[in-house]
Amino acid sequence: MATQEITQENLTQTVENSDILFLDFWADWCGPCKQFAPVFEEASEQHSDITFGKVDTEDQQELAAAAGISSIPTLMAFREGILVFSQPGALNGNQFDQVIQAVRDLDMDEVRQQVAEAEAAEANKQA
């Protein structure tokens, strides 16, 4: 599956409709982004069950700001609508394969429990 262009208009729907979603935040002028692009594209072709999206931070500045992007490339992964990975920096193929496998291997019941506990703790701090 080829990568999809992700914009502010289609981000929410893409996150909600993807079991696993990897987002590459990039810009045309960014050297490390250009190094990572073929790695990301190759992974998208090898893993047809995963959604791969690219966010052009120059074109989608509001989206990049809302996502807290301060360095590019930044790779984010969502699983069942939950952000489970976010890291700036270009990865090589082996590193990216390890991240993909780690996201696949997550126990989502455990992740949802951790999210609920973190939200409860935050609510208690504010109360």
From TrEMBL:
Gene Ontology cellular-component annotations: cytosol
Entry keyword annotation includes Transport: yes
Domain of life: Bacteria
Keywords: Disulfide bond, Electron transport, Redox-active center, Transport
InterPro entries: Thioredoxin, Thioredoxin-like_sf, Thioredoxin_CS, Thioredoxin_domain
Domain Thioredoxin per the UniProt entry, residue ranges: 1-105
Protein's UniProt keywords contain Electron transport: yes
GO molecular function: protein-disulfide reductase activity
Family, similarity comment: Belongs to the thioredoxin family.
Protein name: Thioredoxin
Organism: Rothia aerolata
